[in-house]
């Protein structure tokens, strides 16, 4: 019922431009009406940073890049599109998928078989690329153009 309601909330998702905001509201309502027990994690917890931190909290991102946080997963929400998410994750040293596998199905990667996709697609080391001088990065990207016009280097 919860997810059916979510699917029927397309107008709200469209008007707020956020499915997450609507889902949190519906979870709170389900908790109130039916006793459904849910725990919504705070965006202020350093263990689970997100695109909110990446785009809005430079102090946190400086700590994150230095390894001074207890973060163990990064969700790149609050980001306009998949292309930007990919670039930001590459620049943060959190991308491990080889280029030849991005956006492809298993059968496109290895026709006729499913075994071996992990070896073909996954890198043991992060696949770092500089894209923008004004976005957080594990290495200096000062020679790259800024993403947001008028912004200088992230550092």
Task: Describe what this molecule looks like in 3D.
With 155 residues, the protein is mainly α. It has a domain at 2-34. It is 41% helix and 0% strand. It has eight helices and no strands. It has helices spanning 2-7, 10-16, 19-34, 51-56, 58-66, 82-91, 106-109, 117-121. α2 crosses α3 (19-34). The radius of gyration is 19 Å and the shape is globular.
Spatial gap, N to C terminus: 47 Å
Total helical elements: 8
Question: Which whole number gives the mean pLDDT?
Answer: 87
H and E string: HHHHHHHH
In helices, the fraction of residues equals 40-55%
Instruction: Tell me the radius of gyration.
Output: 19 Å
List how many beta strands DSSP finds: 0
Helix/strand/pairing category? mainly alpha
Low-confidence residue ranges? none
- Oligomerization category of the chains in this entry: single chain
**Percent in strands:** under 5%
């Amino acid at each position: 019922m919860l997810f059916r309601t979510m699917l029927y909330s397309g107008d709200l998702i469209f008007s707020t431009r956020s499915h997450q905001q609507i889902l949190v509201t519906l979870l709170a309502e389900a908790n109130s009406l039916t006793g459904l027990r849910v725990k919504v994690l705070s965006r202020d917890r350093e263990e689970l940073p997100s695109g909110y931190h990446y785009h809005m909290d430079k102090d946190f991102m400086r700590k994150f890049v230095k390894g001074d946080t207890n973060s163990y997963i990064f969700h790149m929400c609050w980001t306009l599109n998949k292309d930007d998410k990919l670039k930001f994750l590459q620049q943060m040293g959190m991308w491990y998928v080889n280029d030849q596998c991005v956006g492809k199905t298993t059968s496109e990667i290895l026709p006729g078989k499913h075994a071996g996709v992990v070896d073909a697609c996954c890198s043991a080391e992060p696949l770092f690329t500089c894209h923008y001088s004004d976005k957080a990065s594990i290495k200096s990207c000062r020679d790259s153009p800024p993403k947001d016009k008028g912004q200088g280097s992230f550092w």
